[in-house]
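Q: What changes when zinc ion is included in the input?
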Amino acid sequence: MTITADDPTAAAILAAMPCYPVPPSGGSPALDGLRAARAGHGVAVGRDGVMFILRRPWLALDVPVTPRIAAYLPYGSIGEPRADLRCGLIPDEHLARILDHFRGALPNEAAAFVLWCETIRQFAVEFPIIEEATPSRLVYRTPVLSAGWHLVCDIHSHGTGPAFFSATDNADDTDATKIALVFGRLSDPDGPETVSRLCAGGMFLPLPRSPFAGADDAD
Ligand SMILES: [Zn+2]
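A: The predicted holo structure follows.
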């Protein structure tokens, strides 16, 4: 599409978050290119709403950000929402290792990252350097990623306390594209409690399922 803006700053902003009207057929070279891209983002405007589209090597996200548009628009549909892990599900043994680490750190909080490499298509767990840990406070450094590696999950514990996203967690997660998980009540015999969300585009979205293989499968 043609982007029209009078000054370079405005043009740069529009180029950084491109907007694509959806043709009646549902696709266009630009839209199809964005959906197939290794990394990128933009918005699609269809007769049934506005879709935020985000691609990362590990993530394909299409999320509607408005209700159906009331005005008549001679456009196509924005299509179905999706939130797919292009990297696949994270092996269960990584979750077990992380929970062991969190229990070992009790009564203090602790943190872990799940990283994924797009060249070797493998996951790795990294435990960050902790600058300060108490039962209610944790200060840690986010990992420095080597070429090809991506942060998929940012996980921390609330020790023996409940699992929830605190105001500090919300502030930390606003600008990130990642899955955030919190584990709490780690010493409970009934097992830990957990909350999760996908952070993308300044939004906190519910996860359709656990990112760990087998975690949702009862059979
Ligand atoms: Zn927290």
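Observations recorded in class: The CA atoms of residues 40 and 55 lie 5 Å apart.
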